[in-house]
Amino acid sequence: MKVGLIGYNSAGKSTLYRAAARGQAKGEVTAVVVPDERFDAIVDQVKPKKATPATVILHDDIEDAQGSGRTFSLKFIDAAKKMDLLLHVVRAFESMTYPFHATVDPLRDQEGIDVELVLSDLQIVENRLERLHKSLSVKTPGSPDYLDKMVFERLKEPLSDGTPIRALELTEDEQTIVKNYQFLSAKPMVVAFNIGEDEAATPPEKLLARCKELASKGTPAFCASATLEEEIAQLDAADQPEFLSSMGLTEPASSRVVKAVYDALGLITFFTAGENDTHAWPLKKGSSAVKAAGTIHTDIAKGFIRAEIVHYNDYKIAGSLDAAYSAGKMSLEGKDYVIQDGDLLHIRNKS
Ligand SMILES: Nc1nc2c(ncn2[C@@H]2O[C@H](COP(=O)(O)OP(=O)(O)O)[C@@H](O)[C@H]2O)c(=O)[nH]1
Ligand SMILES: [Mg+2]
Which of 110, 127, 179, 243 sits between 20 and 30 A of 296, alpha carbons compared? Predict the structure, then answer.
């Protein structure tokens, strides 16, 4: 899961990046562990040789967006295209020491970047439609050009009205074509308003209202003070909870970022509890058992026979996998079984 931080210069992207990586960031790309007490408990009990938690990969290697209504550079678009999700960091703190390119206006900037994403997609759509116009095969129903044209014409109007592709209800076929073009406004998004340290416990009402509005449209959003979060991330893990609560916070930025990313991508977690490797895996909500098997290894999906499933809640009550099996808590499921958050899987397979 590649998460790209985007936003204007001095919005606080790199500071939030370091905070989210809990002070462990090396370079501009880093893995952040998804905090999960269930996984920790499984590892404690199974004591595997290797424990692999679920991770989210943060990218702070996308160049700054240019301010003052300038469009994104090709370099920006190229880098952002490769991401599964864009994390827009919005400057909401005032500082004499670190000036911003404009007056600090987080509501304007949050919308501004969104509009830029839409415009950059609109340009691609218009260019492609123009070229398709000259194509010979565009009139042949079912040809790739014909399908592209149908989808692009469908996208043009909402994009011209400023609606991001992610807000549209698309058919599966339309989604496939949209995915091929890696449109930026189609990417799931999370918004982080970077507020001042003094506001950390009580973010401004207007930002909280915007967060709510964004969340209701499928874009998780939160307020955090990146510098404060970076300081917290540098403390010993044991000292963090007390410091957080003294600041009026409940969880560190790293957890909030990861949760928002899971939420925006519609992810759940399943586990494999092997003695060699116990693993937590992120998976799209609604995925089948054979899809989950493919996440582990393509060969396991190919040779899929049945999935042995124990839910974490039953595992926890039983105390171990063996005990859960003995208590009749294992169910044998076929390829189409829909994986639930917290399922422990063992795939019977021919490989
Ligand atoms: N006062 C204050 N300064 C901040 C905050 N977040 C970032 N900064 C400072 O603003 C400057 C730019 O931040 P940086 O993370 O490098 O921004 P980027 O250009 O978006 O990566 C840095 O010197 C930070 O220390 C904040 O929440 N409060
Ligand atoms: Mg930076």
Answer: 179
Are the beta carbons of 98 and 50 closer than 8 angstroms?
no
Pair 290, 260 in one domain: no
Atom number, ligand 1, closest to the C-alpha of residue 7: 20
Amino acid at 269: T
Residue among 137, 219, 151, 140 nearest 180 (CA): 151
Query: Which numbered atom of ligand 1 lies nearest the CA of 9?
Result: 19
Give me ligand 1 centre to Cα 223, in Å.
Answer: 14
Which residues of the chain fall below pLDDT 50? Answer: none
253-265 and 13-20 helices, crossing angle to 10°: 100
Q: Whose CA is nearest to atom 28 of ligand 1?
A: 196
The tally of domains found in the chain comes to 2
Ligand 1 centre from 30 Cα, in Å?
Answer: 19
- Which structural domain, as residue segments, surrounds residue 68? 2-264
Contact 146, 152 (CB under 8 A): no
What predicted TM-score, i.e. pTM, was given to this entire model? Answer: 0.92
